[in-house]
Design goal:
Oligomer: single chain
Radius of gyration: 17 Å
Number of helices: 7
Largest sheet: 5 strands, parallel
Number of strands: 5
Strand order of the largest sheet: 2-1-3-4-5
Shape: globular
């Protein structure tokens, strides 16, 4: 079971997607705009954010850029969820840091499958790694062991 947040200004679509994902065994909720999604993240970190690309106010693209620039949410899995059809829109979402992209209207089985694929790909990773530690690992260095630091005190 995963905790999933949907940010979509179309409440009917958000409610349908939420119902489909809850029927698949996930805990799910939704908000109607990008700013509400950012505020909700301060309360609880989800396992996945389904994010509408085109919303009034703070767009999904703006939310995604904000997340990717944050040391706390740089690694939060995001699937763009939008009615836009162009390949350029999909490429823009992936370039901005989304892990996946699904178009609306959606097929319920396809949505569950794509969400499952994305969550499964994250099974081997911790839910969140401090940005400093992730950068050290990418550079080939291991972050200091917390137990070693305690022994040194």
């Amino acid at each position: 079971m995963a905790y999933i947040i949907i940010a979509d200004d179309d409440d009917i679509i958000a409610e349908m997607a939420s119902g489909v994902l809850m029927d698949a065994g996930h805990a799910c909720g939704w908000v109607s705009d990008g700013q509400a999604a950012v505020e909700l993240l301060e309360w609880r970190r989800p396992d996945l954010l389904l994010l509408d690309q085109d919303m009034p106010g703070m767009s999904g693209t703006a939310v995604l850029r904000k997340l990717r620039g944050s040391p706390d949410y740089y690694d939060l899995p995001v699937m763009m969820f939008t009615a836009m059809n162009g390949a350029e829109d999909e490429l823009q979402a992936l370039y901005n840091g989304a892990q996946d992209y699904i178009r609306k209207p959606f097929d319920p089985k396809f949505l569950v499958w794509r969400v499952s694929q994305l969550l499964r790909s994250r099974d081997r990773h911790p839910q969140h790694t401090e940005l400093k530690d992730a950068m050290m690992r990418q550079s080939g260095k291991e972050p200091p062991d917390l137990d070693e630091n305690r022994a040194m005190v």
